[in-house]
Amino acid sequence: MAAVDFAPASGHNGAVFRQRPWLLPLCLAIMVLGGWYFGFRALKNDRELPVYVAGGERLAAGAEIYRRSEQPGVPADQKPFTYPPFAALPFVPFARLPATWQAPAWFAVNFVILLLLLRWLHGWGRRDQPGDGSPRLLWYWILLLLAGAHHVLSVFANQSHDLFVAGAVGLCAAATCRGRATAGIWAGLGAAVKATPFLFLGLFVLRGRWLALLLLLLAFAGLSLLPDWLFPRADGRYWLQAWYELVLAGQQVGATAAAEGAWNSHSFLNQSLPGTLTRLCTATASTAAFVDPLMWNAGLSPAAFRIVSWSAQLAVLALIAWGVLAGAAALRRGGGEGALRRTLGLGEVASIACGMVLLSPQSSKAHFCVWLFPAAFLADRALRGRRDVLLWILLGLVLLLATTGAKDLVGTAIGNKLLAYGNVTWCTVLMLLGCVRAMATAGPRPDGPRAP
């Protein structure tokens, strides 16, 4: 496998800790305090980490990791493991740690991933700017954090593994900005952890990156079969086969996640496009937790709802394809030069990241930590691209929805109501529209060249 490369797209590899010696003790202090704090939270609250640790422990034992309430003869988990089998593999070492060390170790790993992501986004944002003190770079970070950072905190609050997926997407972005086929390896890694990065298949097909496409498939297959080689199932089946039969087989393609003991179809925690449309367009008598009856309910028939849901999802795919093809055309007009390729490379990955959470059957708030990529691209294009009123309007709406949905600002009751109406979903749709707009208007102006 290719070496991990989170180097900035500009090639700037300054010795950060040598230039700013205060950063190292600060990062170490955050790791120590964060590990203690989230370890303390784990003792008081039911979070996602125990789900992953149980999955890793059972994987190592060859025991069933997919345990839902409707499976006869299998004790059900309150929060069942539903991810591809490779996703359990990184948690085998966690299962062998003392229970009091699991949460601190998890925090340290995720904090390092986040630092590497932010470092790469910083390097990408300052590609050809004269120095780190540029006022434009400061505004880039202000806009990026306001639009994209909110759900990164959800990863730490819920102790989820979504930064693992975001890290794979970041590696894919770093390779894409350099035009490297190894982007397929990192997309395959992300797909092996959570299936939604398979959407990169469409990107590689549209851009004719056939080697990257092949590497994605090979990486996914190899990583998905690795648990069978290291920890075979006691019943002799493949882990990937069990995941399909016990988790995926009952799901309808293009529909929201709904399975007894795993997902509630009307939960407002699900901010995917199918999930939000299900709440808005179909009736429910459920009184389960995280189900909030809305002020109106269209009560569409199943056939009518399928038309609405599929049309909306096809529109998302069409938007992504439009943006990718428009960016490719802009790159051809610009002669394929490196600076423009680095700019539009992140735009392509940002569009796919939006599609990953919009088209997934189940997207909770922590999954939207991938907002970092479209937020960075939109902030950069608003500040450094051509003056575009529509792009600024879209970015303004993104900032409005991203910040007013925070429960610390609006309160739990209003925050839950906004989630029920899909404020995170619609904010992601606006981000996607902004990315498509920025890629469609990129490249040289008709009246002369424009800096990328």
Integer-rounded radius of gyration: 22 Å
DSSP strand content: under 5%
Distance between the termini: 32 Å
Which whole number gives the mean pLDDT?
81
- What are the secondary-structure elements, in order, as H or E? HHHHHHHHHHHHHHHHHHHH
Judged by helices, strands and strand pairing, the structural class is mainly alpha
Largest sheet: none
Tell me the number of helical segments per DSSP (H or I, 4 or more residues long). Answer: 20
Tell me the number of strands. 0
Give unreliable regions as ranges: 1-5, 8-14, 446-451
Overall morphology: globular
* Number of domain units: 2
Indicate the percent of residues in helices: 55-70%
Topology:
Blueprint lengths: L15 H4 L3 H22 L4 H13 L30 H4 L3 H27 L9 H14 L1 H9 L3 H16 L5 H11 L6 H7 L3 H21 L8 H10 L24 H9 L20 H32 L4 H22 L12 H13 L4 H16 L2 H4 L1 H9 L2 H18 L12
Helix pairs in contact: 2-5, 5-8, 6-16, 6-17, 8-9, 8-15, 9-11, 10-11, 13-14, 14-15, 14-20, 15-16, 15-20, 16-20, 17-20
Describe the structure.
This protein has two domains: 1-125 and 160-249, no CATH class; 257-452, no CATH class. 62% of the residues lie in helices and 0% in strands. It has 20 helices and no strands. With 452 residues, it is mostly helical.
